[in-house]
Amino acid sequence: MHTLRFGVNYTPRHGWFHSWHDFDPARARADLDQMAGLGLDHVRVFHLWPLLQPNRTLVRNAAVDQLAHLVDLAGEAGLDVMVDGVQGHLSSFDFYPEWTRSWHHRNVFTDPEAIEAQATLLHTLGRALTGRPNLIGLQLGNELNNLVEHNPVTADEVDHYLDTLLAAARDGLGAGGGLVTHSAYDAAWYGDDHPFTPEASARKGDLTTVHPWVFSGDCARRYGPRSPQVRHLAEYGTELAKAYATDPARPVWVQETGAPEPHIPAADAPEFARATVQNAAECAGLWGVTWWCSHDVDRSLADFPELEYTLGLFDSSGHPKPIAEALAETIADLRRTPRPTPPRDTALILDCTPGTRSASGPGGAYFEAWMRMRTQGVRPAVVLAARAEDAQYLATRGIKQVVRPS
């Protein structure tokens, strides 16, 4: 039986990710000790692409060493680490090296030399990090599909990009060096004709990552912060991801979920965290849940969307918030008494095209049909229409009945 993993996405308390400009190991260790104190077992960490690779043919050894040092500090605190390579996008800001911009503009998804440079970076990071016992693996970057607005790309070009970078990361880590993955924000699942597809998320890399945010499709405002639609959103995202996988046993990682104000008022955040984790834990094949994020952004830093200032488990002074206590209690309870995850024997058929993918997102007809079943006590799986009559596939997933949305 797989032991569920519970962790947090690390946002440094002092200086946010700008702290990489003057990395302070003592401050990082203090942050990591706080996270470990909640009973978490891992962190996901992010360096900044312009600092790692300021020139297309230069990966800075000093920046790579900083990242490796952080991984080692996490290990000393008892935390495993997932490293994201190309940032890319973080909390409403995009970070591009200058060699991709202005007079040197290159489409980061389609320019062959830009792809080669990113592959070199990931291979270099893999070589530098491999062999560390607390390394979970290497991810291409954080929600790279946030960059498509300024880097037009087709689905086929995305597939080539992902395949190239995944191969480079895997080669850098070497056999048995850890997981190799990629991530995308919810447009990959819900966005009509979005070039990062559900198939790419569910079939490329070693497992599927999902980032079920309550502001996607205006979910929390549409249904209410205490609604079943909000509290079962991570569970739904996990089941949706499983439907697109060709391997029924492929794990799914709820890699980002959080309680952004005002979508989730502070008073509702502890119960939201409990319900989100408990409901997701009822999904067979769940790898784990990683909360966003560790620390609030300090309000001395300007120009963040309001919700970014309130997403932490700890406030910007380093004090644990009620949501941190609720999350720690929920995790401890699940570890003491692991819940069984029996197969979902009833599946709801999803029949959509790339151009009608929004039907499966908040506000969509399929999403609402699934949620109606869930509130009626059914634990529905999701099955694509193309597999709805595949008896062997259904049996492998434990599905005995398929129904169409009504």
Overview of this structure, please?
GO terms for molecular function: hydrolase activity. This protein is of the alpha/beta class and 406 residues long. The protein has an eight-stranded parallel sheet with strand order 7-6-3-2-1-10-9-8. A three-stranded parallel sheet has the order 12-11-13. A hairpin with a 2-residue loop joins strand 4 and strand 5. The longest helix has 19 residues. It is globular. The mean pLDDT is 97.
Gist?
With 406 residues, the chain is an alpha/beta fold.
What is the radius of gyration? 20 Å
Assign an overall shape: globular
Percent of sequence in beta strands: 5-15%
Helix- and strand-based class?
Answer: alpha/beta
Largest sheet: 8 strands, parallel
Largest beta sheet: strand ordering: 7-6-3-2-1-10-9-8
Distance between the termini: 36 Å
How many domain units? 2
SS summary, helix count: 14
Averaged pLDDT: 97
Find the CATH superfamily of the largest domain. Answer: Glycosidases
Search tags:
406 residues, 8-stranded parallel β-sheet, 14 helices, 2 domains, alpha/beta, globular, TIM Barrel
Present the secondary structure layout:
Blueprint: E1 5-9, H1 25-36, E2 42-46, H2 49-52, H3 61-76, E3 80-86, E4 89-90, E5 93-94, H4 112-129, E6 135-141, H5 155-173, E7 179-181, H6 187-190, H7 198-203, E8 208-210, H8 219-223, H9 228-231, H10 233-244, E9 252-257, H11 269-280, E10 286-292, H12 322-336, E11 346-350, H13 365-375, E12 381-384, H14 391-396, E13 401-403
Parallel strand pairs: 1-2, 1-10, 2-3, 3-6, 6-7, 8-9, 9-10, 11-12, 11-13
Antiparallel strand pairs: 4-5
